Amino acid sequence: MFKVFKTRFEQGYRTMKYPKEPMVLPPSYRGLPVVHSGCDAEVVNKCAAACPQDCVNSKDGSIDLGRCLFCGICERVSAGKFVTFSQN
């Protein structure tokens, strides 16, 4: 029990001031993916083939967020034409 208190004392106060100040996320943070619907079918097929979780549906150009790992491979493969990740 004392080890927990010692560790907490060493770490200090680490909470955020969220309601009073906006959260600042690192630039590498990948939030909700924004799918661009006007993308070429060939680019969507390349993204679907490159996805390690098979979450890109090449038929309708959607992403299954339940399977997505937010790895960013689809964004790199499409150069941002099919999907871009927001900070949300």
Q: Note poorly predicted spans.
A: none
In the sheet with the most strands, the strands line up as: 1-4
N-to-C SSE string, H for helix and E for strand:
HEHEEHE
**Structural class of the secondary elements?**
alpha+beta
Rg value: 19 Å
Sketch the major β-sheet: 2 strands, antiparallel
Total count of strands = 4
Instruction: Let me know the average pLDDT.
Output: 89
Strand content: 5-15%
Kindly state the percentage of residues in helix. 25-40%
Shape: elongated
Number of continuous helical runs: 3
Our measurement of the CA-to-CA distance between the termini, rounded to an integer number of angstroms, reads 38 Å
Keywords:
88 residues, two-stranded antiparallel ribbon, two-stranded antiparallel sheet, 3 helices
Task: Give the SSE layout.
Blueprint: H1 2-11, E1 33-35, H2 41-50, E2 56-57, E3 62-63, H3 73-78, E4 83-85
Antiparallel strand pairs: 1-4, 2-3
How would you summarize this macromolecular structure in one to three sentences?
The protein has helices spanning 2-11, 41-50, 73-78; strands spanning 33-35, 56-57, 62-63, 83-85.
Structure, explained:
By secondary structure, the chain is α+β, with helices and mostly antiparallel strands. 30% of the residues lie in helices and 11% in strands. It contains three helices and four strands. The strands form two sheets. A two-stranded antiparallel ribbon has the order 1-4. Strands 2-3 form a two-stranded antiparallel ribbon. A hairpin with a 4-residue loop joins strand 2 and strand 3 (62-63). The longest helix is centred in the first third of the chain and has 10 residues, at 2-11. The protein is elongated and about 60 Å long. The mean pLDDT is 89.
